[in-house]
Design a protein that fits this description.
heterodimer, A: alpha/beta, 8-stranded mixed sheet, 6-stranded mixed sheet, 24 helices, globular, B: mainly alpha
Chain lengths: ~650, ~290
């Protein structure tokens, strides 16, 4: 039996939780599929372990296996040792005693984690018992609920009496944490606890988790897809890919020098927020299913340093340096090459002056889109309680051959503005001039003007899974778009083939249905569909936020290529400042329906003037020690805000 | 231009290991029954051992025998032959009703769901109105009072059935209409009728198909109920509902004379329901990542 990596944690004591050869597989309708191929790791008391992986890596099911909560049809082999007991072999009755009191878990979605019909306080104290094993008395329960809410930074006792729907997402997630740790567990497993939240809320939640973990000395396992988050919060990081553990190291060491090509690729394709790159490093391809890479290195199909030895057998996780484990068999040989790749990416960075100069070079020609004081109110007039003002007089301008960013949190109105530009929403007031035509009232446009609008502005949507019609082939979707632009088009097949090649997909993909495409490939088709009408502006509404980090960079590079070739302008709508920096020369910051700041991207992000922009910039995860420590100040004001204004979803 | 290619990782290309699920025995049996009924409807008079209306009073009201497998009725007509020939009335009417309701209901449902607003309000209130009527009673009154035969009953039942389709389709369209793929089609300037028929409709097809099978089963029972009351099908035409009522008095002499049409009715209706459910599950698998 191999020694699980990190048997001795920072606390030095015996590990709290030891996982040996954890192999998870599913059997659905008679078909076996491997989910993880056999992970070994351990967690020391008081340690924070990050499990980082993209979609399909098996990270969430690994977390569930640790607490014995695998869904039906999925089962685990191997050993999960907790205080001398093997969790995988315990009967359900004993597991239920351990869950919550010894091992606890919090989930990704704060909106469904809490029972909507129970008051928050009641959910927290539900399983608490007094000294004689009876449920708590009323007064005692109130007191306990208040005490535990205070622990997660909710000072307002009224929250205990609130129903979950009365609270914001961040508040709900905190109540969820309070409920999960109510019975003082030794280990807390957090599955993407901040992914569904806005960036500013994410920082608060992570800071709370860290604080609670440190004051209680709990072991914490953080499951995340975001390396930045893992480096900010964790002592040690484990990288999971297609069901295999590829690297384990302390956070600092991994960030300084990754010892597996995949970790390196992840690091390089994560866009930096402080600099614009001339070209992003992307890992080609997409995440394989564990079955397809069962007998080789899981990363081999996408690795640029692949050799015969990589595909001969599954490389074991080996200690390659003190306290560093890597599953790369070639790590010694390719180490200098990996460092070279890293310095190449550093060299691709533009300095501040170059970046700002970009903003001056572009957008000099006539404007493609000009909006003046656009307002949008949702809800029927007369029902004042139900009216929501999404946009409060927004004026923006997008020049020819210019990429403009529009950033803000959810509810800032950024998507609404984009939808107004393409005519999917009609503004309540204000004007939108597209290519010289006033399109603010789409319903009243003449047929010819409407056609001109369609051919000027196109859109790429966020969700790659619903952006394409599932019952139509890629070819028919693109062919239809081509015919919509040019009714006389002769050879549709050939034109579809050319479009597919332009976005880097093989021509034979025309015969496929969307289900046979990965998320990144679907997003490429969506870009091709927008390009079919040769538009002058493409509105990109969070086009990469649903994609894995390793694929995200491919799409960003594709958008840059497309722009170079066709000279289209972009309105790039995103919540991610690091992404917007790589794409846009100018940026507008939207807060609650108003533009609070605008200017060259480099200027705005490096030297934000508006407090809201500053808050956004500050909330980008960083491994800097002060990042989480300072979250408290930011948390204080927003807690007061959240408590005074109960929000809906 | 430098082409950024997404190389084939071989993940999504690898042959799906999942075999097509075979339908269960029950479904196979349902298909067999429906197939048999359809065959009888098409070639009934060729398959029947006796003429459906051939009377032979010498063998009136006989219990099942080797000669008359299901016995005879009080005119000496062969029950088996009448059941076989009667399949035509059992299939054609319900099929017309199901298809008629499908067309009317889908068009109205698509328009209501896609356009919304006043159009939606008007169509759905119309559907509510019809929905509120006691369906079978109206059919009895219309067919009984106005007279008119089988096809009047069919038209009346189409009118009474379409609200079900319209409501289901509208609900499904509402779900689809804000999906990015529909919005992308709108952004491209594709005609609305095309968006409704070529984009949205294929995506709700599983529901439509399943519901059409259910409508078939429902109409089969409703039409038989009418002919049980002596409405709709002309007296001499063999029809399961009619046989059931006419032969009720023979229950002592030849129980099969009224049991057999009842069993045929129930088996056909249940089979249709099961096939409807199965095809819904089968069709909604299509286009979904699994």
């Amino acid at each position: 039996m191999t020694v699980p990596p990190g048997a001795a944690g920072p606390a030095g004591g015996a590990p709290l939780l030891t996982v040996r050869g954890l192999r998870i597989s599913s059997r659905l309708q008679g078909v076996d599929r491997v989910i993880t191929t056999g992970s070994d790791f351990s967690l020391a008391p008081g340690e924070t372990l990050g499990i980082v992986g993209e979609s399909g890596s098996g990270k969430s099911l690994t977390a569930r296996a640790l607490i014995g909560l695998l869904p039906a049809g999925v089962h685990a082999e191997g050993e999960v040792e907790y205080r001398g007991r093997d969790i995988l072999k315990l009967p359900e009755r004993q597991l239920r005693q351990i869950r919550g009191s010894e091992l606890a878990m919090i989930f990704q979605d704060p909106f469904t984690m809490l029972n909507p019909l129970m008051r928050c306080g009641a959910q927290i104290v539900e399983l608490l018992r007094d000294e004689r094993g009876r449920p708590l008395k009323r007064a005692r329960a109130r007191q306990e609920a208040a005490r535990r809410l205070a622990e997660v930074g909710i000072a307002d006792a009224a929250v205990a009496d609130a129903y979950p729907f009365e609270l914001s997402g961040g508040m709900r997630q905190r109540v969820g944490i309070a409920a999960a740790i109510a019975r003082d567990p030794q280990v807390l497993i957090a599955d993407e606890p901040s992914t569904a939240l806005d960036v500013t809320t994410q920082r608060e939640i992570l800071a709370r988790l860290r604080e609670v973990q440190q004051t209680r000395g709990m072991g914490l396992i953080l499951i995340t897809h975001d390396l930045r988050v893992a480096f900010a919060l964790c002592d040690r990081v484990l990288v999971l890919y297609a069901g295999s553990v590829l690297e384990v190291a302390t956070a600092g060491a991994m960030e300084a020098e990754p010892l597996h090509p995949y970790t390196l690729g992840l690091l390089l394709s994560d866009p930096p927020v402080d600099r614009r790159l001339s070209h992003m490093a992307a890992i080609p391809g997409s995440v394989p299913s564990p079955d397809d890479v069962a007998t080789s290195c899981a990363f081999a199909p996408r690795c640029e340093w692949r050799a015969e030895i990589c595909t001969a057998a599954t490389p074991p996780l080996a200690e390659v340096a003190p306290a560093r484990w890597s599953a790369c068999v070639r790590v010694d040989g390719i180490e200098p090459l990996m460092q070279e790749a890293r310095s190449e990416t550093m060299a691709a960075r533009l300095d501040h002056e170059q970046e700002v100069a970009l903003a001056q070079e572009t957008g000099q020609d006539s404007a493609v889109v000009v909006t003046r004081d656009v307002e949008k109110v949702f809800g029927e007039s007369g029902q004042s309680g139900r009216r929501v003002t999404a946009l409060k007089g927004v004026s923006i301008e997008i020049g020819a051959d210019e990429a403009v960013g529009l950033v803000g949190e959810s509810g800032s109105g950024k998507s609404t503005l984009g939808r107004c530009l393409v005519g999917l929403e009609t503004p309540t007031a204000g004007t939108i001039v597209v290519n010289g035509i006033d399109t603010s009232q789409t319903g009243r446009l003449s047929a010819a003007d409407r056609r001109r609008l369609r051919r000027t502005v196109q859109m790429v949507f966020q969700d790659p899974y619903s952006t394409l019609n599932p019952v139509r082939t890629v070819g028919s979707t693109l062919g239809e778009a081509l015919s919509a632009a040019d009714g006389q088009i002769r050879d549709v097949r050939k034109a579809v083939g050319e479009l597919l090649e332009r976005v880097g997909l093989p021509v034979r993909y025309a015969e496929r249905k969307p289900v046979a495409l990965s998320g990144g490939e679907r997003q490429r088709v969506a870009v091709a569909r927008a390009l079919a009408v040769r538009p002058r502006l493409i509105v990109c509404d969070e086009p990469v936020s649903a994609l894995d980090v390793s694929v995200q960079a491919q799409i960003l590079n594709l958008l840059a290529e497309v722009r170079r070739e066709f000279g289209v302008s972009y309105l790039f709508i995103t919540h991610d400042l690091a992404v917007v920096r790589q794409v846009a020369e100018r940026v507008y910051v939207l807060c609650q329906g108003e533009v609070v700041e605008q200017g060259a991207t480099g200027d705005v992000l490096d030297n934000p003037q508006d407090p809201y922009t500053r808050k956004l910039v500050d909330s980008i995860p960083s491994s800097d020690e002060t990042w989480l420590a300072q979250a408290d100040e930011a948390a204080q004001d927003s807690t007061a805000q959240a408590a005074s204004t109960p929000q809906g979803a | 231009m430098t082409v950024i290619t997404a190389p084939d990782t071989g993940v999504l290309v690898s042959p799906r290991k999942r075999g097509r699920r075979r339908p269960s025995l029950l479904i196979l049996l349902s298909f067999l029954i429906v197939l048999l009924v359809v065959a009888c409807a098409l070639f009934g008079s060729l398959l029947a051992p006796f003429g459906a209306n051939a009377q032979n009073l010498i063998v009136a009201t006989q219990a099942p025998s080797a000669h008359h497998l299901l016995g005879t009725d009080d005119f000496g007509r062969d029950i088996l032959s009448r059941i076989i020939v009667g399949a035509r009335a059992a299939v054609i009417g319900p099929a017309l009703i199901a298809v008629g309701a499908l067309i009317v209901g889908n068009v109205l449902g698509l328009v209501a769901g896609y356009f919304g607003g006043r159009v939606d309000y008007f169509i759905m209130r119309l559907a509510d109105l019809v929905w509120a009527l006691p369906g079978l009673l109206i059919a009895i009154v219309v067919v009984g009072v106005i007279g008119g035969g089988y096809y009047v009953a069919v038209v009346v039942l189409v009118v009474l059935t379409f609200p079900i389709d319209a409501r289901i389709v509208r609900g499904a369209v509402l779900q689809q209409r804000n999906m990015p793929y529909v919005e992308a089609a709108e952004t491209l300037g594709i005609a609305r009728s095309r968006i409704m028929l070529r984009h949205i409709w294929p995506n709700i097809l599983p529901l439509v198909v399943a519901n059409t099978f259910l409508n078939f089963a429902f109409s089969l029972v409703a039409l038989s109920a009418l002919s049980f009351l002596g409405l709709g099908v002309p007296l001499n035409t063999p029809d399961w509902g009619g046989m059931l009522s006419q032969n009720l008095s023979l229950i002592q002499g030849n129980a099969m004379a009224c049991l057999a049409p009842a069993i045929a009715l129930v088996l056909t209706a249940v089979s249709m329901n099961l096939i409807g459910d199965w095809s819904y599950e089968r069709l909604s698998d299509r286009g979904r990542a699994r």
